[in-house]
Specification:
By secondary structure, this protein is mainly beta. It has helices at residues 2-15, 280-283, 287-293, and strands at residues 22-38, 43-59, 62-76, 81-96, 101-111, 115-127, 130-141, 146-157, 161-170, 173-183, 187-195, 199-211, 214-225, 231-243, 246-256, 261-274. It has one domain: Beta Barrel (Porin), CATH 2.40.160.50. A 16-stranded antiparallel beta barrel has the order 1-2-3-4-5-6-7-8-9-10-11-12-13-14-15-16.
Length: 302
């Protein structure tokens, strides 16, 4: 936890860079959700609270950014409760070798049951609407276990449409990522797919703008595990913009794992402007990103 606190301090120092720098991306979010389960054996409530903030700035040929995220979970069994949390911090620095080539390096800390430290280096090449990238990461747990990961990715971006494909190589295994998004004035829709030997994920989400400050939201996600039950998550809700780019969204949540059904609600306050220019910020996964791939109730206390 001491190293995690130092990472937070360092990230705060980066964000206080000279005023000549230009902010290209800025976001924050605060989420709360609650899922309830009732059957003939027991009644329980799963609650999750999360907070996140991220930024990116440019100064000359340099681009730098970072992200902080914390997730706190609790389960109330009726006769007792458990609480546990996950924390993550990451920071990256990019340098434009030419107008088309960017090299970057990043560091992240993920603190769950055991601290995991990750160092990454890579490069990106941009040609028109396309970006091609490659990265190499070293990962080390506090207890001494370490492993390496490699990434290849490609993106296509226009004003109203984007698509991506990526593959991660990890100790003989591969995880494939693909997605497409369309974002126009009236609506936004996203389709994302993850494939591996042990898990397939299919996620569809979207929103429809009734007015400039009012939208309808919906999402459906299917998790096909190579082991255990399959999980389906559904969400339907609405959002209201209370200030410029500041949204409050509420949703009704349903989840089913082939054994039990969960239902509940979610609340979220969010703010976002821009998009990270160093695409590795979205395409090279941090340990926290992998944690968030799974259903919210997948992990439990130690």
């Amino acid at each position: 936890m001491k190293k995690f606190a130092l990472a937070l301090s360092g990230l705060a120092a980066i964000s206080a860079a000279p005023a000549v720098a230009e902010t290209t991306y800025l976001s924050f979010s605060l989420d709360y959700s609650q899922l309830n389960i009732e059957n003939e054996k027991f009644t329980s409530k799963f609650k999750q609270t999360s907070a996140a903030a991220a930024f990116e700035r440019t100064s000359g040929k340099f681009t730098y950014g970072g992200e902080l995220k914390t997730i706190r979970n609790s389960v109330d069994y009726g006769r007792g409760s458990d609480d546990w949390s996950f924390n993550g911090a990451s920071a990256y620095l990019g340098y434009d070798v030419t107008s088309a080539i960017t090299v970057f390096a990043s560091a992240s800390i993920f603190d769950d049951y055991e601290e995991l430290r990750t160092l990454t280096a890579g490069a990106e090449y941009t040609s028109g609407a396309y970006t091609f990238g490659a990265a190499y990461s070293t990962n080390e747990y506090e207890g001494g276990y370490d492993f390496d990961t490699k990434y290849l990715y490609v993106e296509y971006n226009t004003n109203d449409m984007s698509a991506y494909g990526a593959v991660m190589f990890d100790s003989g295994d591969e995880i494939y990522f693909a997605g497409i998004s369309r974002d126009v004035e009236a609506y936004q829709v996203d389709l994302d797919v993850v494939h591996s030997d042990f898990l397939d994920i299919y996620a569809l989400s979207g929103s429809y703008n009734i007015r400039d400050n009012l939208r309808l939201n919906g999402a459906a996600t299917r998790y096909d595990f190579g082991f255990g039950p399959q999980v389906t998550e559904l969400s339907l809700g609405a959002g209201y913009m209370v200030g410029e780019n500041v949204w409050i969204d509420a949703s009704y949540e349903l989840s089913d794992d082939d054994r039990d059904s969960f239902s509940g609600f979610g609340l979220k306050v969010s703010y976002e402007i821009g998009k990270p220019g160093v695409r590795a910020a979205d395409r090279v996964a941090t340990p926290m990103d992998f944690y968030e791939l799974f259903p919210s109730f997948f992990y439990g206390p130690t």
